[in-house]
Amino acid sequence: QGNKLWGGRFVGDTDPIMEKFNASVAYDQRMWDADIRGSKAYVRALEKARLVSTDEMDQILHGMDQISEEWSKGAFVIKPGDEDIHTANERRLKELVGAPAGKLHTGRSRNDQVVTDMRLWLRDAISTLAGNALQLISTMVERAAAEIDVLVPGYTHMQRAQPIRWSHWILSHAVALSRDVERLQEIKKRVNVLALGRYAYSCKLAFDAISLNSMDATGQRDFVGILCVTVSLNYTLLSLVCCYSETCSSLMPQKKNADSLELIRSKAGRVFGRCAGFMMTLKGLPSTYNKDLQEDKEAMFDCYDTINAVLQVSTGVMSTLQINQSVMEAALSPDMLATDLAYYLVRKGMPFREAHGVSGKAVFMAESKNIPLNQLTLEDLTTLSPLFGGDVASVWDYRSSVEQYSAPGGTAKNSVTAQVEHLRVWLKKQ
Ligand code: ARG
């Protein structure tokens, strides 16, 4: 155990299988920059407290800069015995500056370092996620504005229900995503808290707050859990955005498969699984740090990586997908105006419940005659209600149908334009 940073009270070697099982350096090395920034701020705090001399501090700062350069060039060599990013950086510091390296860890535990590094890493990661989500929203908003007049069947229960604007459908996702961005901004404040409460340390690293209690600071991972939950929620929205996209089948030449969207949808399972798995790890842990908590990093990285890729692929899909307006509008059919037929009767004074019944009978009649709903004659309709008149012909127009819904949140042009404007203003404020 001689070369281990914690080897003093141990005898004998660690079983290589255990060594591998124990190590987190394979995945936590991506926090190398946060680890170095944290240590640089910490050594300044030690110097202020006169626990290292100014000269020792300078040597450590210089050594840390060298290590940083090695990492950014891809030249840092991980050695056997480097258990995690924290021990690896400190081992290298000792090689570079010698004895003063041993003073860096005065008064801090790796458990403090782990949370400090993770919080530093995660606050930047959250900004990246929010930025990518904003790009997706902005792509959606501009697409909705450009294609505001295209109509499509609106679906409920996977069935064609009523005509809507395609732009209205796009914006339904943009609006949901805007709440995601707000949630990310909210959790960033909770993430950006310093675990190791020396004021000097905090100043250098621009944390928003200092943890009130050291046992809470090192033993809780709700800041990782909330990321997993937020990403999962985000995912429930994104997995909805699955309609059109083109890639090829390797076997059947005529096929165009929606691979990008299917992958976006499928990775929801992965993220939800990570989230649930990590919650299970956290459940019922004893107070303060337990090695179980090492599981936090893979959950955090995988949730982040997955959603980050998904947001970018979604933006790609949203910006390149081509729509076929005539095919989309040809999918509209008169039966989708059955509600409008009921509204016609409502305007003539019939209570809606009754009008719904009459319109339903009209649908049944058209089905029995095997004709589209709008082919029923006025004579047919008047057998169902005397309120029908020649002006019923005006019902059979998809464009005027969508224009009825001009209240806030509706699918009429003025209402969708208001949604676009609202989101544009919101985007500017982010
Ligand atoms: N790699 C470990 C982690 O990420 C470091 C903490 C080890 N601390 C300890 N007390 N054994 O959780």
UniProtKB/TrEMBL annotation:
GO terms for biological process: L-arginine biosynthetic process via ornithine. Residues 8-197, 241-273 form the Fumarate lyase N-terminal domain. Its EC number is 4.3.2.1. Residues 336-403 form the Argininosuccinate lyase C-terminal domain. It comes from the Eukaryota. It is an enzyme of class 4 (lyase). GO terms for molecular function: argininosuccinate lyase activity. GO terms for cellular component: cytosol. Pfam families: ASL_C2, Lyase_1. Belongs to the lyase 1 family. Argininosuccinate lyase subfamily. HAMAP family: Arg_succ_lyase. This is Argininosuccinate lyase. It comes from Echeneis naucrates (Live sharksucker). The lineage of its organism: Eukaryota, Metazoa, Chordata, Craniata, Vertebrata. The gene is asl.
